[in-house]
Amino acid sequence: MSDCFNIFFESVNDKDAAFYAMSAGGNSINLRQDVIKINDPSSNSNNFIQNEEDYLSIEMEVKTPFMLNFLVGSLEKYKCLVKDVDDDEDDPGIPINAFLGRPLLSQPDKFMLNKPGLYVVDSREVERITDEYRKKGWHIFCLPSGVTSKDQFCNAIKEVCPLDPPLYDPNWDALADSLWAGFYGIEDKKMVLLWRDACEMKKVSPDEFNIATEILNDLCVSLADPAITASAPKVMIVLQGQ
């Protein structure tokens, strides 16, 4: 299941530049195992535009909240509005910065799903959400607070998560491999990795935060893949507080 959004720009130049930046001039991006579809309505109409807003909009379809933030994050420098395709027709949408700051999980029927993935949650809701998972028997792994760098992140992972083999050299590839084998090797089938103050590392070390986030998202996706897990998939959910 995927989510679809429309992005409306103030100028055609901004729309064209943003579309090219996100799609490298194509209609889709295949990043790891997540597929993102991007469509420019004005390019599919044989130079005949029925709606003027088609000149100023981009349609976007994503499979996970992580990829939504990853993609939409490239639009921060443009003046644009984001709108869910299911929203009311008269709803103008919300500014891109407000959209990026919006919790992606806030209501019980939204977060209590068995769908693996990385989700951004309102820091005020973290404990309540975690308690709901705990009540349902999920194994909860909680990263310590104060993680703002790569070394601190690796140390936090070593402190909390199962690793196979043990992590001695804090490099990203070794971390990803050790994390995957560690979680795959334990008996639990439903797991939550809670990172309450992930926003702090995002502020202090944004590049390292993006790599860490991609590793965690890949962990969720690959553990759920029967082809990778020899038909023994697991449900891994990562909650990042903001």
Describe this structure in words.
By secondary structure, this protein is α/β, with parallel strands linked by helices. The chain has nine helices and ten strands. It has helices at residues 12-23, 65-72, 96-100, 108-111, 126-135, 150-160, 172-185, 198-204, 206-223; strands spanning 3-9, 28-31, 34-39, 57-62, 80-84, 94-95, 117-121, 139-142, 190-195, 235-241. The strands form two sheets. Strands 2-3-4-1-5-6 form a six-stranded antiparallel sheet. The protein has a four-stranded parallel sheet with strand order 7-10-9-8, sandwiched between helices. Strand 2 (28-31) and strand 3 (34-39) form a beta hairpin. Helix 7 (172-185) packs parallel to helix 9 and helix 8 (198-204) crosses helix 9 (206-223). The two termini are 25 Å apart. Residues 25-35, 44-52 and 101-112 have low confidence and may be disordered.
* Rg on CA atoms, Å: 19 Å
Q: How large is the count of helical segments?
A: 9
Helix content: 25-40%
The number of strands is 10
Name of the level-1 CATH class of the largest domain? Alpha Beta
CATH architecture of the largest domain: 2-Layer Sandwich
Series of H and E elements = EHEEEHEEHHEHEHHEHHE
What do the pLDDT scores average to? 76
